[in-house]
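Bug report

Summary: structure tokens for Alpha-glucuronidase differ between web form and batch submission.
Environment: batch mode, default settings.
Steps: 1) Submit the sequence below via batch. 2) Compare with the web form result.

Sequence submitted:
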Amino acid sequence: MIDALDPGGPVNSVPPNDVHAAWLPPEAFRALGSRRSLVCGEGTLVDTVRDEIARACVRYGGSTDRPHPRPDRRPADDRSAAGTAYDLVLALVPAGLLPIAAAAVDVVYRRRYGAGTLGEEGFLLARHTEVTVVLAEAPAGLLYGLFHLVRLGESAFGLTRPMELHRPAMRLRMLNHWDNIDVHPVMGQVERGYAGGSIFWQDGARREDLTRVGAYGRLLAACGVNAVSVNNVNVHATEARLLTDRLGDVAAIADVLRPYGIRVHLSVSFAAPVMLGGLSSADPLDEAVREWWADATKRVYESVPDFGGYVVKADSEGQPGPFGYGRSHADGANVLADALSPYGGVVHWRAFVYNHRQDWRDRSTDRARAAHDHFVPLDGQFRDNVILQVKHGPMDFQTREPVSPVIAGMPGTRLAVELQVTQEYTGQQRHICYLAPWWSEVLGFGPWGDDGPTVAAVAAGASVGDAAERGAAGDGGGLVAVSNVGDDPFWTGHPLAQANLYAFGRLAWDPRLAPTAVLDEWIELTFAASAPNGLGLVRRVLRAIMDDSWRTYERYTAPLGVGFMVHPGDHYGPDVDGYEYSRWGTYHFADRDGVGVDRTRASGTAFTGQFPPPWRDVYESVESCPDELLLFFHHVPYGHVLHSGSTVIQHIYDTHFAGVEQVVAMRQQWERLAGVIDPGVHARVRERLDEQVRCATEWRDQINTYFFRKSGVPDAHGRRIH
Ligand code: GCW
């Protein structure tokens, strides 16, 4: 727990005392707070920068100035009013008279990069004549520069530093909350939430006290997130009204997030004109419907002038949509886009559209194909302010999936890639599963092979024909993820799941960051206080536990990319046939001879044909298909030999035994931190590791037993199978 210091002032966004400080404990500001600094510039976000530094200075004895209001009285050198030299200058440029060091850095910046290069959110960091200088051309850049300094700590003030220019790869770095206002009878306050209640809503109303939301905004700004949608994409009756008579709630949340550069977005129901407006139809081509959206949107902007836009789940899992009126998803998205466009807002239109009432006997329908089948024919028909939000895999956030072929299929559409930080299918924040290595693989994947743009580049705005790498943000849709935060004192239920939230923001800012480097950043910040003498040990233990934890999770759960062997409904723990005869389109087809889904063009659903070369052929052939996706694309006999040299059945046994051993080792490693870190964190993680060992054992035994009974093939090593 933190010992928060609140000096008052306009920004009051430190978490309450009983809430964990996550990656911003006061100690993370030690280097900043003990320096003499000057902040030049005006505006809400610049005030936030000043307040952050002032708060740190109260604690660590530094000082912070603002330029003298009369330009002729400003110190032209790098000295504070008290006559001592500044250690740090953060300045918006061009901003009148700058101290010498900042002015010198500004000259180099202009010469080397050209004015305007930093843009809306970028910043430049340099060290000149023993002064650390951060320059930005817009207030948000200064804010991100501040948090970069926090990450660097003392090293920001080292003797020399080369000049660094930082700009986000993605313009939109957004979290979706699946939070309900009313407690849903099945899904609860937060759908797929594993961290308690919602920080926004409680029992049918907005929370009176939004301090926690402000503290959340601060954490998000510190890892680079700049947009949040505040309600579930499944929009129920009460939540629909956020668009109209409950708009005040949205405005109140926006007010609290604004000082951290975070825009608020809203999930809306496609049927809003009927549900809220009393119209007889929500047909997007009906003039009255268009007018209704235009009016409703105008009122939204009167309350929230910097409102980000709408998120829409339409014709998906029971949500209403344009299909109900015989219209296309482009018709549907464009009517909302037209309403938002005068104000600069965007529509995030989700591509997660599939038949959720499939007959399991029907082998002609393949859920993996659905998004591509529905959306690719519409490429080029969406307005410029429509962002098609595509789940990174073709199914649904399973532990291993190929990259969705939609990402390669719509060069004429702005695409956002959607990740799931909340661990619905990856252990529900009871299991340690550091997801950055996986996201990094997805973002670095080349849908057209190694020479074309990566998934990250597509999300940033590149399309086929562009080079593999892309520097700054283009006009792509960016990165979106489902948040894992709730009102739990540790924010994310499992304290180590905070690393996933942090890593999402960092990868959205720079997808090329190494997951291990991001983990190190998170460790240094988060454990700065609890382990002043033991940080090295904390780092070693956490790396040993977390670095490979996604692959460990993969080892003891569904094998070789097959997916959906989870318990239906809550999606926790094993139930191998739980979804086998259901309507959800999620089957593994295990029988006595083999397992897997034939998605080839030759004999299966032809899903492989949705990929461009080389992947359409790599996946098509059982010889070239990567082992980890084999059962996603092929139905193979248990004796099929993998590239690894093992048979499918022996691989299943081996990985499941190994996975549990690794979890047991994680549990042992964790004990090394007893007495080294905060006891509250230690106890919570220990309790969850006990559950992880139990659940992993259950996975191992059910999966191994199931496949032993199906195949009759014994384990080559004679280990115990039930
Ligand atoms: O993974 C599924 C979840 C649903 C969710 C849906 C979606 C919000 O099980 O709970 O609904 O995805 O992404 O819309």
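Above is the batch result. After comparison, the two runs are identical; trailing whitespace caused the diff. Residues 26-166 form a domain with the Chitobiase; domain 2 fold (CATH 3.30.379.10). The chain has three domains: 26-166, 173-295+384-513, 553-597+635-711.
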